[in-house]
Design goal:
Distance between the termini: 46 Å
Radius of gyration: 26 Å
Shape: flat
Number of strands: 11
CATH topology of the largest domain: Rossmann fold
Helix content: 40-55%
CATH superfamily of the largest domain: P-loop containing nucleotide triphosphate hydrolases
């Protein structure tokens, strides 16, 4: 896979469609993504020397840190996983194997590449699925195919044979740090399940189902496409993509930052940092698909850093995150833009959901401003959870309509400032109530 040829300005413009503000963070990740494209065009002898510029995003919750990383990965068709650094301290720093994040990244890459391959094979798979449906349906094949493709048989019932993978009959239980051994045992049982011991160990088995023709075509097309995929090639491509284009988002990295201390929980947090260091520096990680190098994986870390500072991370780990960007807290104006501008904004989501019941909800400008005002005020008085506050405010605002929508078909409801104030002002002003409800 070649990195997409998007300029930093084009990348920022795409991110702007989904995320409001945070120009500095968008510029940083856009440059990091473009640098990957540039690296692919450098002479091979120098290419391996060029390491990704890992990034730390600093800012309070709900300002868009995770969404920026997730959208960036989607934009690049890159394998992406999110991990929370604090989870590695749950049973001490030896509790959960830090290498697991790379194994999860490779799994994400395999899934991504397999889906792409299946999409390429879809037309061939569809033809094979049609043959299987026609074989089960009986009758004249040529006449049946034309009727099938025209949709004339969609509602007819047909009995088909589909593959189903049963769970292993022998459960595999593993303690902390034994994920790789567990995976190996499960793979062994799966392979045995495809042989003569399949009834004991589980595996693919056939089952007959009676479904409508339209559904049968979808089921069989997916099954045929999966069967046609060359998994050896998928794995080779996936490992390469994980190594050269993978993005790991490490959230809550501030929770493992620690000042010098003689003992206590700081020992565990310091241990997690030392375990993370070789992964971020570049090392070889054993996975079920072979050894994976992490030298060119892009790591984006994020944290609020309210108590700890970036300088509280061990110096070696700090050095592996040369780009640091501080994200701005969201203002009332930002919250209003978040409700209006993104293609998947909350106002569009709620309007679309209620339209399925025949209820037309129209968010007027003054209503959107009032929702943003209340969300901003509650954030100031209680915990500032950024844009996530909009979810709780909107849910409370539309609670009655959502509950009664099935009996309101044909209703047209304009959501203006007075409508918002009538339903939310009392709750927003009562600090105790807003703490628990908004």
């Amino acid at each position: 896979m070649q990195a997409k040829n998007l300029s930093p300005r084009e990348i920022v413009a795409e991110l702007d469609r989904h995320i409001v503000g945070q120009a500095a963070a968008k510029r940083a990740v856009a440059t990091a993504l473009r640098s990957r494209w540039r690296r692919q065009r450098v002479s091979p002898d120098l290419r391996d020397e060029i390491l990704p510029k890992n990034i730390i995003l600093i800012g309070p919750t709900g300002v868009g840190k995770t969404e920026i990383a997730r959208r960036l990965a989607r934009l690049a068709d890159a394998p992406f996983i999110k991990v929370e650094a604090s989870k590695f301290t749950e049973v001490g720093y030896v509790g959960r194997d830090v290498d697991a994040m790379i194994r999860d990244l490779v799994e994400a890459a395999v899934k991504l590449v397999k889906e792409e391959e299946m999409q390429k094979l879809r037309s061939r798979a569809r033809a094979a699925a049609e043959d299987r449906v026609l074989g089960a349906y009986g009758g004249d094949r040529d006449r049946g195919r034309s009727r099938l493709q025209a949709g004339a048989l969609d509602e007819e019932e047909v009995e088909i044979e589909v593959s189903e993978r049963s769970a292993p009959a022998i459960p595999v239980v593993a303690g902390p740090g034994m994920e790789e051994m567990t995976q190996g045992l499960q793979d062994m049982f799966q392979q045995m399940g495809q042989g003569p011991l399949g009834s004991i160990f589980g595996g693919a088995r056939k089952r007959r189902r009676k479904v409508k023709v339209k559904e049968a075509l979808e089921i069989l097309t997916e099954e045929e496409a999966a069967r046609m995929v060359d998994m050896d090639r998928v794995v080779r491509e996936a490992v390469g993509r994980a190594e050269n284009h993978g993005i790991v988002f490490i959230d809550e990295i501030d929770k493992i930052a620690t000042r010098e201390s003689a003992g206590g929980p700081d020992v565990s947090r310091g241990g997690v940092q030392r375990d993370l260091l070789p992964i971020v520096e570049g090392s070889n990680v054993n996975t079920k698909y072979g050894t994976v190098r992490t030298d060119h994986v892009l790591f984006i870390a994020a944290g609020a850093f309210h108590v700890a500072k970036v300088t509280d991370l061990i110096p070696e780990l700090q050095g592996r995150f040369p780009i640091r960007v501080e994200l701005e807290p969201l203002t009332r104006s930002d919250l209003a833009r978040i409700l209006r501008e993104p293609s998947g904004s909350l106002t569009r989501q709620y309007a679309a959901l209620l339209a399925t019941e025949g209820v037309e909800v129209i968010f007027q400008d003054d209503g959107v401003e009032e929702i943003a005002r209340i969300a901003a005020e509650v954030n100031e008085r209680t915990e500032n959870i950024g844009a996530r506050r909009l979810h709780t405010v909107m849910e409370r605002l539309l609670d009655e309509i959502s509950f009664d929508a099935d009996r309101m078909a044909g209703a047209r409801i304009p959501v203006d400032a007075s409508y918002v104030r009538e339903r939310l002002d009392g709750i927003a002003r009562d600090e105790d109530l807003s703490r628990y409800i908004l």
